Amino acid sequence: MADRSLLLIPGPTLVPASVLQAMAQHPIGHRSKEFSDLMAEVTAGLRWLHQTTSDVLILAASGTGAMEAGIINFLSPGDRVLCGCNGKFGERWADLCRAFHLQVETITAPWGQPLNPDDFAEKLAADRDKTIKAVIVTHSETSTGVLNDLQAINRHVQAHGQALMIVDAVTSLGATPVPMDAWGLDVVASGSQKGYMIPPGLGFVAVSERAWAAYATAKLPKFYFDLGAYRRDGAKHSTPFTPPVNLFFALRQSLQLMQQEGLPQIFARHARAAAMVRAAVAAWGLPLLCPVACASPAVTAVAPTTVAAEEVRTLLKKQFGIAIAGGQDHLKGKIFRIGHLGFAGEREMLTVIAALEAVLQQLGHPLTPGSGVGAALQVLATSP
Amino acid sequence: MADRSLLLIPGPTLVPASVLQAMAQHPIGHRSKEFSDLMAEVTAGLRWLHQTTSDVLILAASGTGAMEAGIINFLSPGDRVLCGCNGKFGERWADLCRAFHLQVETITAPWGQPLNPDDFAEKLAADRDKTIKAVIVTHSETSTGVLNDLQAINRHVQAHGQALMIVDAVTSLGATPVPMDAWGLDVVASGSQKGYMIPPGLGFVAVSERAWAAYATAKLPKFYFDLGAYRRDGAKHSTPFTPPVNLFFALRQSLQLMQQEGLPQIFARHARAAAMVRAAVAAWGLPLLCPVACASPAVTAVAPTTVAAEEVRTLLKKQFGIAIAGGQDHLKGKIFRIGHLGFAGEREMLTVIAALEAVLQQLGHPLTPGSGVGAALQVLATSP
Asked: Do A244 and B242 count as a contact with CB atoms less than 8 A apart?
């Protein structure tokens, strides 16, 4: 079905062959000792990935389901929350909060620009009565390729002392450091089809002790996403509802691959891949949607002016079988996005850069043949 | 990891090799034409399986998630609902309704006995003001092996004229007829790891036009499980959130296998497998938990008195690598359950019956060697 396809969108991402093989085993019973052992192993791996000793819970859900769980378990109707909005996902979390009757105040920046930590500082400092119950931030905004300054925003949340820090780490976890304990993050949500290098279908929510204290009094209704049940059963290496056991097989294998590589090496590889793409785009004289200083290690958004973004995508798919992403909502047709996340590394970046060069040339964009690949090789030669 | 294991629990069920292979393909982008084509194909297959022209929506969730979606989308806080409770899953839906502040009235029967349709008739007939908004029934109660008389209960719901009929069809769909349109069911929820013959991770909710009318005024908060979003995007062969694309690959293959076999043939095969097991159990002189007249085509619960249920399970696993299920909650240690659901058919039943005979003999249960297999063969020889 997809024999020729090279998937370089910001999720689902490429899946290593050994992970696909692990997933294709016969299912096991989820109330068996085999499953308990599997659950114990992947839970330990998830703690390693999150750099935490806190609970990391596994849901049968997409990343959006994980974020919903990460929000509704710790809040009550009418609670005041600050939500950072500078792209499709930030806006989605604001919509989600409104659907659950939270009192949402958005802190915005244009799509393609980072959130300003000072905007958070101002709101939080003014909240002398401590009515702000949570701050919700999308770390890596997949729709634009912006990496928000989570650490700086979180410092202001820590200074506030009451609000929970709830993080969408869907395309940042496994691509750049999200040291939950060191930074003191309260809720970190992610999804399997990103840095995890496995297919979509699992959501993850890491929960701090401070967040569990809030859970005890939170009143939003919940059942399938009631994280207390996942914590209770997780303590016995079990799950409250039937887990997607084959995706757990995949998770075990991918966590083993990640641990073999090591977190610093994984982050460095993502940084290199991102830098390669951006060097090539610069060599071609194409504008990036967002400044390099705040660019995500997971995805690069290019906003071409001399060629149509959708024509680039179509030709790249047709001629080379490479799938990259387009823009979402008002950026539809205006940008293309290259995923350099998870298993996609230097080799895939050389591939897509070379192929893009061919496509851009065909579409009439003025460039020096080989300039993009040359710039990427220069990055490879000089980066750690 | 499970090379020797034969999984005969009532879910996860056995997965055909071609389905495992289909699942082990590289993921595709979920906003691609390939995915739209896939979505259109599986949606048509799901309508065929549900015998409906209504929407059948696909969620990244377990069967419990599908039931939650099937309940919260059509009701408002304080709504009065009747919930049938004669096993673990019926009780779970009552708990779920309470978590969402519905006014729940349970209609109960002992675990192992069927719900009495007259009990529903009485409550519904007495409701002249039409305050009952929904009736929730678990068709096949997986925890006990009882098949509730959904058709009879539903006739009373139809006579009421206002209440929605919400059905947990998790272990009945694909094992016995659940003709949604012919019976006029409003919401039918199911999960992938059962009759579908694919691993866990997908939930399905079929929704009637009458249920969509209730959706328009339903006030329970929802976002990830907001079925209106799935319907809207489904009309474009898309999904609101990232779908588990590899499980969709599996679903396409399993629906093709099911369509090749045909619904009447699938139902007849399940009936044969169930009858084989029950004939063997009778030949051994072991009691069934529930009367044969109301026994599920998906799972048989045996309540041995001469041997310990858990010793049967342990020895069967150790000596033959066959996994069967135990009892849940207060039935723990008192019953064992054999799944004859999905891909598990006559061959697997002969296998488990022969192996059980060996195990029962070892544990000292008095039986005539070969009597169980002989009884099963007699069923095979005489059943259509």
From this structure: no
Regarding whether B310 and B225 lie in a shared domain, the answer is no
Test mutation, A13, A242, A310, A335, chain B, max B CBs within 10 A: A242
User: Among partner residues B60, B100, B201, which is closest to A223 by beta-carbon distance?
Assistant: B100
**Average pLDDT of the residues of chain A:** 97
3-state secondary structure of A249: helix
Are B92 and B143 found together in one domain?
Answer: yes
CB-nearest to B246 from A30, A199, A221 is A199
Residue B59 domain boundaries: 17-260
Residues A375 and A268 in one domain: yes
- Residues of chain A with Cβ-Cβ distance to B241 below 8 Å are 62-65
Residue A50 near residue A178, CB atoms below 8 Å: yes
A260, A295, A320: which is the final residue of a domain? A260
Q: Check pLDDT > 90 for residue A3.
A: no
Q: Are residues A243 and A276 in the same domain?
A: no
CB environment B212-230: b (16+ within 10 A), e (fewer): bebbeebebbbbbbbbbbb
The per-residue pLDDT for B41 is: 98
pLDDT at B1 over 70: no
**Domain end residue (candidates: A239, A260, A281):** A260
Q: What is the mean pLDDT of residues A312-318?
A: 97
pLDDT the model gives residue A363: 98
> Does residue B3 have a pLDDT over 80?
no
Judged by CB atoms closer than 8 Å, whether chains meet at A99 and B25 is answered as no
**A254 and A275 both lie in a single domain:** no
Residue B250 lies in a domain: yes
Q: What is the mean pLDDT of residues B24-47?
A: 96
Token pair, residue B13, equals 């069920």
Coil, strand or helix: which one is B374? helix
Cβ contact, residue pair B244, A244, below 8 Å = yes
Q: Is the whole model's pTM more than 0.95, yes or no?
A: yes
Q: Same domain for B358 and B230?
A: no
Option in A12, A61, A99 nearest B27 (CB): A12
Note the ipTM here.
0.97
Considering CB atoms only, which of A12, A28, A64 is closest to B245?
A: A12
* Number of domains into which chain A is organized: 2
Q: How many Å lie between the alpha carbon of B278 and the closest alpha carbon of chain A?
A: 23
The answer, yes or no, to whether residue B48 has pLDDT greater than 60, is yes
- Whether residue B323 and residue A28 make contact (CB cut-off 8 A), yes or no, is yes
Chain B residues within an 8 Å CB radius of A244: 62, 199-201, 244, 247
Taking 80 as the threshold, does the pLDDT of residue A243 lie above it? yes
Mean pLDDT of all residues in A151-169: 98
Contact of A339 with chain B, judged by CB distance below 8 Å, is answered with no
